[in-house]
Amino acid sequence: MRKILITGGAGFIGSHVVRKFVNKYPDYAIVNLDKLTYAGNLANLTDIEDKPNYTFIKADITDAIEINELFKRENFDAVIHLAAESHVDRSITDPSAFVMTNVIGTVNLLNAAREYWKGKYDEKRFYHVSTDEVYGALGESGMFTETTAYDPHSPYSASKASSDHFVRAYHDTYGLDIVISNCSNNYGSHHFPEKLIPLAINNIKNNKPVPVYGKGENVRDWLWVEDHARAIDVIFHQAKSGQTYNIGGHNEWKNIDLIHLLCSIMDKKLGRDPGESAKLITFVVDRAGHDLRYAIDSAKLQNELDWVPSLQFEEGLEKTVAWYLDNEEWLTNVTTGNYQAYYDKQYKGR
Ligand code: NAD
Ligand code: DAU
């Protein structure tokens, strides 16, 4: 049996990765470690929480003592590290939280792996889930490849770039088996409604203004979250040690065009007249240091490991809207803060 520590498994992408691994690999013991910050929601995992190969541990990766004790006790075979502060706007308000979790937290995990995996590095694996934002911003043309120089602009992307560098340094210096993937913007179910797509869905549903930063000209490359989880599965199992893979959807959208598409889907789903939801679009002051454009070249992943995105964007967006409208309770619990009581109700005393 392989025992895999997945960090940040109560978050958006982490919950999809945990679900995939728990369901696909009944012989693996999947340990989900999460601090349950505002972004962690155990209600994301109700469908798998009672599976025999799944365990949840509430812990903070910035606590080196707790992380060391855990590694000493558990004999993990691998780590898939997703725990992070993930929202760019919050990093502009409070960069320190991003340094603590994304840099110090990652180094704490690396130190524990270095210490407790000694003599067995070739049997173990440390997988860091990272972002395309480490590469900075593109102009009108070009794409990020795995050899694009790092040039982060926001405190969030600077912290993720730093953690990527530490992960590589532990490979080069100590010989840890590591892999890193850098992915573009994800969308799908269980996405916290501070990020553009779920925020817009929630606001349109409630007839509230949809804030578009600046002129809405910024471009993001959107990937369905389940395609990201599938890429992580493939890379985790097949990549050679020390490798990096870019993951992306070849699916670039200007924010304003995306919001118009979303409004037209919402009009149909909510039985509104065409154009009604678009009246909610409100241009607001731009994000500081707002990266103009991201676009991922994922040819290496496609050619070497045979991964391609499975879902067209319009279809994925319709599925996503349908999920939010069908899961009103999830959304209400998140927006009211009730979701934070789920741990006490379901897990305390287990
Ligand atoms: P998220 O904010 O939804 O989830 C992050 C999770 O980490 C939460 O469950 C939170 O409770 C947990 N966490 C935060 N601080 C912690 C700490 N100190 N100790 C333990 N757990 C902690 O984030 P997400 O969007 O699911 O992103 C997951 C990972 O993927 C991040 O590393 C992010 O940088 C990366 N990523 C995200 C995207 C995207 O589009 N969302 C794209 C590429 C890469
Ligand atoms: O590229 C990968 C990154 O994508 C991940 O590493 C991050 O964790 C993730 O949060 C995401 O970052 P972005 O900043 O691109 O995502 P966000 O949803 O915050 O914003 C998407 C775009 O929409 C961006 O250009 C800013 C803009 N925006 C965002 C919000 C929240 C708006 O115009 N209005 C908004 O209200």
Helix content: 40-55%
Q: How large is the count of helical segments? A: 12
How far do the termini sit from each other? 23 Å
Q: Label the CATH architecture of the domain at 2-187 and 223-250 and 291-312.
A: 3-Layer(aba) Sandwich
Mean pLDDT: 97
User: Low-confidence parts, pLDDT < 50 over ≥5 residues?
Assistant: none
Q: At the third CATH level, what is the topology name of the domain at 2-187 and 223-250 and 291-312? A: Rossmann fold
Write the H/E string, N to C.
EHEEHEHHEHEEHEEHEEHEHHHH
Strands of the biggest beta sheet: in what spatial order? 3-2-1-4-5-6-10
Shape designation: globular
Which ions and ligands are bound to the chains? nicotinamide-adenine-dinucleotide, 2'deoxy-thymidine-5'-diphospho-alpha-D-glucose
Pairing-aware structural class of the strands and helices?
alpha/beta
The major β-sheet equals:
7 strands, parallel
Name of the CATH homologous superfamily of the domain at 2-187 and 223-250 and 291-312: NAD(P)-binding Rossmann-like Domain
CATH class of the domain at 2-187 and 223-250 and 291-312: Alpha Beta
The Rg value, from CA coordinates, equals: 20 Å
How many beta-strand elements? 12
How much of the sequence lies in strands comes to 15-25%
GO molecular function: dTDP-glucose 4,6-dehydratase activity
InterPro entries: dTDP_Gluc_deHydtase, NAD(P)-bd_dom, NAD(P)-bd_dom_sf
EC number: 4.2.1.46
Cofactor: NAD(+)
